[in-house]
Write a structure and sequence with these properties.
single chain, 414 residues, alpha/beta, Rossmann fold, 3 domains, 5-stranded parallel β-sheet, 15 strands
Length: 414
């Protein structure tokens, strides 16, 4: 009888201890801030004219968030993505950025594509001293302590792309873009460089975002017969331009694009032409083990038919830089992360990438690709080394550039 009594008593003690431990664990999980997920805001267009361009950036961020969560999380916490549709509308982008910060309490935002949307979000993140990672090449002429610009600036895309085009195709250039700040500022800079190179800008034309009528543009190109078309059209309008270009049989005139990548050319069969070129830092055809592994991980989640583009890789780079900074300071504190990011470097599918502490942009190479029928780009030229970012081209003062940006913004649709 005594043996049975002792056994039951021991069992009861174990149950009590286990119950107390369980209560403590539940209490900690419900009350300890470190147990709460780290919230990441993803602000991109899932509808509207920019949706095809921006959806892949959401996918790549989800892929990397899943990878972190599947390997223990960040600081022992799960990352929770809060995805918001900017609807290809700058006013809605600003509204959603404010909501993500004030209502959703996100620790960081990854987002925007067009400059008009970034410029709408910029005062919001500055107001709350928050942090935005912006992944797309742009016109430069901007700098903010609250934005890490992982895309290319003029001296890393627009300027070398123009010089290459003039050297390879001729000095008579036709400038064509969507009617907002990026194409207008990019073309302003290209006019400057064209003058320096003794090249002639035969015309400079703009169409509204989402425009589907390029009859007058194509007619003018047929009449002027430029040596090369420099294309800064964004979004769905590209498919209408390239379709009309082929239909009117002027696809012998080369086009150098600054806003078309693998994700977009997938939907534009007419742009899969050997007379079409693109200027980026990244192409999926980069032959490195890190790039091959990166592509494989993305395909594993989304399917092998998916393609990788420069803005997708720069989104990935931004996320990796942020994760590295959070782990370094062991906190999601905005100011601590700001300080660490200014001196950050990582290996990437582009090679070694460093944040320039002076302006929050990245040092990177520039590459030029020739479009292939497969929908990929054959790399035919690249810079010998990574280029130090110069968001404000040095041949004018910053105050002059700011005046020019203001004038162009008023002139454009934004």
């Amino acid at each position: 009888m005594n043996i049975k009594y002792n056994f039951n008593f021991s069992y009861l003690v174990i149950v009590i201890i286990f119950s107390i431990a369980l209560i403590i664990v539940v209490y900690i999980n419900n009350n300890q801030p470190l147990s709460k997920p780290i919230r990441v805001g993803i602000l991109h267009s899932l509808s509207g004219t920019m949706a095809n361009s921006e959806k892949p950036l959401v996918e790549i961020l989800q892929t990397e968030i899943d990878k972190v969560n599947n390997t223990g999380g960040l600081l022992g916490r799960r990352i929770e993505s809060v995805i918001s549709d900017g609807r290809s509308d700058p006013k809605h982008f600003a509204k959603e950025a404010d909501r993500l910060i004030t209502k959703e309490k996100v620790d960081v935002i990854f987002g925007c594509w067009t400059s008009i949307c970034r410029k709408a979000v910029k005062p919001v993140v500055e107001k709350y001293n928050h942090l935005l990672f912006y992944p797309v090449q742009y016109e430069g002429l901007e700098q903010s302590p609250n934005i890490i610009y992982t895309g290319s600036v003029p001296n890393q895309q627009i300027i070398p792309g123009l010089i290459w085009a003039i050297n390879n195709f001729g000095s008579r250039v036709y400038l064509l873009g969507s009617d907002y700040i990026f194409p207008r500022a990019a073309n302003f800079i290209m006019r400057d460089i064209a003058n320096i190179k003794n090249a002639e800008v035969v015309a400079e034309r703009y169409k509204p975002l989402a425009s589907d009528n390029f009859d007058e543009i194509i007619a003018e190109i047929k009449k002027l017969k430029p040596d090369v078309i420099l294309n800064t059209i964004n979004g769905d309008s590209n498919k209408y331009f390239f379709s009309k270009r082929k239909k009117e049989m002027i696809d012998n005139i080369p086009v150098v694009s600054f806003s078309i990548n693998e994700s977009e050319i997938k939907y534009i069969d007419e742009a899969k032409s050997e007379t079409h070129y693109a200027v980026w830092s990244y192409f999926q055809t980069i032959n490195s083990q890190l790039n091959i592994d990166f592509i494989s991980r993305y395909h594993e989640k989304w399917g092998v038919s998916k393609v990788i583009s420069d803005p997708m890789v720069t989104s990935y780079i931004g996320f990796k830089l942020w994760v590295q900074a959070v782990r370094s300071v062991e906190s999601t504190n905005q100011q601590l992360i700001h300080n660490v990011l200014r001196e950050s470097s990582i290996n990437s599918p582009l090679g070694l990438i460093s944040v320039d502490s002076r302006n929050h942009h990245l040092q990177k190479k520039v590459r030029i690709g020739q479009s292939q029928k497969s929908g990929q780009f054959k790399i035919i030229w690249e810079s010998k080394k990574a280029l130090i970012p110069a968001p404000y081209p040095s041949y004018r003062s910053r105050s002059d550039w700011n005046k020019i940006v203001h004038a162009l913004s008023v002139k454009g649709s934004d």
